[in-house]
Amino acid sequence: MVVKQAGLLSRALVAMAVLAMLSGCAGRVAMEDRHPEDPWEGFNRQVFAFNEVVDRAVLKPVARGYRTVTPQPVQTGVGNFFSNLGEIRTALNSLLQGKPANAGLATSRFVINSTVGIVGLWDFATHMGITVDDEDFGQTLGVWGVNEGPYLVLPFLGPSTVRDTAGMPLDMVTYPVYYVEDDAVRYGLTALRVVDLRASFLDQEELIRGDRYVFIRDAYLQRRRFEVSDGELGDDPFASDEFDFDFDEADFDDAYEDADFDD
Questions:
Q1: Which has more confidence, 200 or 149?
Q2: What gap in Å lies between CA 217 and CA 57, rounded to an integer?
């Protein structure tokens, strides 16, 4: 009887050892299969799922309501207004990147649209053929040779990298809304900007299939590299009219269920 129990115990220990070895191998394979620029994928997927909950519960319904009650010319004017404020940041970063011509164009656009364009509501500069490449501090750091670092999903803000995240504080303080002293007005403008931006994607929700997290991550990284290199690394991944984002609720449910909350 003792011999039999010892044999059973021995086989159980061997089985446990084999399972432990298989588990370790599976863990190594999972780590090796991860995107080399996304070493924090477990954490990023959790934040991504959280952001999707916020979008589905709040942002998307509000954006739909905004688009329903707001005439298209007004929506265009709102988008132009916030875009015009970004010309200041573009001008400054263009100078920091050694692009005086782009800085001059951004300054011209800001002056023209802020005056003739009625505080930026009308993009008169574009009608004059004055266009510019948008620049931010994340791009400036890239031009200066700073590595983009790991991919990072930020709560509420979405896809980023360590380098782009480092540039965000400077992007914030070079955006004029930051200096509005009245809290109610500043928060109101910020909320309107977010809603207007989200509404602009409502008609572009058809192409993403499969793993939405992977699609958005890869598209973001390609887009940022295109911007930092001024297009030298290939075509703009967002240039095609067929490049859309899908925030469909059914797809969100699948992404949320597939998210790994145990990493």
A1: 149
A2: 22
